[in-house]
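Task: sequence design from structure.
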């Protein structure tokens, strides 16, 4: 009964998201409304941050604002759950949310999972370096299964040698430290822990994107996603930093992936100028690694397979399931869609293995997410992007686009009145 109810809720949430998209955005590789209804985030959960980064989207009052009580944050989660449906993506974030008390963090994670949301804890990671047992505790006691570390050279506030890092190369050791932390927590707990990383991209570190991506592909056993986020001039971001265009960024991403035609594997999560991604296999090649896209827009067989896959099982999520429930649900899916798996999916997997040159690649997703400045918001394109936003927070009874929260002062208003 629970599975049927969840499936009905998921289909309803996807149908609403798809109906809200303009026809021009209903692309063959559009995942909004086909597999995800959107992505939500908490706000006011912990406004304060102990870093003073040069690229910071918090407002000037963040460090003096009081965090919202747990009841208010949980109310946000319930609003987001009604929008996202079961298995919806929830970012536990604000300023630096790990500055909240341990018991409260565990409570928020447990609440999110209990509602049927998949919480990803967003952090600069320094709290886990100061307190090496904390991440393990969140996994054991809260059931945390996803964590995201923000690491880049615009950040200010780290301790030891990384406090003086001025380029991405000087932060590779820190990324390796977080990778080893994730591996160790998985090993000690025996539980699932998926890790991602975000990186703010400016003209100063754009040239280092290929090396950063190559590092993540080589460490795809620890990390399954990296999100490159071009600078938006909002909040406390300092003057003198220049952002990059999507074309500039993806040229560098393709270089790091060792595939000049990587764009053929692009997919979207809402407006293409907001979010795009390539799902692929990280494949070892000699001393390095490359990314082989899971599907290509110019391959008719790939597109037919993807369309049927999303039609049949779009919205299905196993990310909150234990091993036994995962196994049972997979068996049910195979029994229900056996012909598809045999006649469409199996040949596709064979083609993918030939394309990759191996059956041993690891899943990896590279993402770009483009926030807007106030000037961009005021343009016709900015308004078009805002209307199709897939990343929202629950604020004053409305689901507000994150770009509006950042660039229209909605975050600052909340902090001043909290």
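Answer:
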């Amino acid at each position: 009964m629970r599975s049927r109810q969840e499936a009905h809720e998921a289909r309803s949430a996807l149908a609403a998201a798809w109906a809200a998209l303009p026809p021009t955005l209903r692309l063959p590789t559009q995942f909004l409304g086909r597999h995800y209804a959107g992505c939500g985030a908490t706000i006011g959960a912990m406004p304060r941050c102990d870093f003073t980064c040069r690229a910071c989207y918090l407002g000037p009052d963040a460090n003096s604002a009081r965090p919202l009580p747990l009841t208010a944050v949980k109310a946000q989660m319930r609003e987001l759950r009604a929008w996202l449906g079961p298995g919806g993506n929830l970012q536990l974030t604000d300023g630096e949310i790990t500055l909240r008390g341990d018991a409260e963090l565990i409570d928020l994670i447990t609440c999110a999972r209990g509602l049927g949301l998949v919480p990803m804890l967003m952090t600069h990671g320094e709290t886990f370096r100061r307190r090496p047992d904390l991440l393990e505790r969140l996994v054991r006691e809260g059931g945390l299964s996803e964590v995201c570390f923000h690491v880049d050279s615009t950040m200010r506030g780290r301790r030891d040698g990384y406090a003086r890092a001025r380029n991405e190369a000087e932060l590779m050791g820190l990324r390796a430290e977080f990778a080893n932390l994730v591996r160790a927590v998985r090993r000690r707990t025996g539980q699932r822990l998926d890790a991602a990383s975000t990186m703010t991209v400016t003209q100063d570190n754009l040239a280092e994107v290929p090396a950063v991506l190559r590092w993540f592909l080589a460490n795809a056993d620890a990390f399954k996603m990296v999100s490159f986020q071009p600078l938006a001039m909002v909040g406390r971001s300092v003057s003198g930093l220049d952002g990059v265009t999507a074309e500039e960024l993806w040229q560098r991403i393709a270089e790091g992936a060792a595939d000049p035609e990587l764009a053929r594997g692009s997919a979207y999560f809402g407006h293409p100028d907001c979010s795009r991604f390539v799902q692929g296999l990280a494949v070892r090649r000699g001393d390095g690694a490359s990314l082989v896209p899971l599907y290509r827009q110019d391959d008719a067989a790939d597109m037919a397979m993807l369309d049927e896959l999303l039609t049949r099982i779009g919205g299905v999520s196993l990310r909150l399931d234990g091993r036994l429930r995962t196994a049972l649900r997979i068996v049910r899916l195979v029994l229900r869609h056996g012909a598809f798996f045999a006649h469409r999916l199996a040949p596709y997997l064979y083609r993918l293995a030939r394309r990759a040159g191996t059956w041993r690649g690891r899943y990896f997703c590279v993402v770009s997410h483009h926030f807007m400045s106030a000037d961009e918001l005021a343009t016709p394109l900015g308004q078009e992007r805002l209307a199709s936003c897939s990343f929202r927070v629950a604020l004053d009874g409305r689901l507000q686009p994150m770009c509006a929260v950042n660039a229209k002062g909605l975050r600052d208003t909340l902090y001043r009145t909290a």
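The mean pLDDT is 95.
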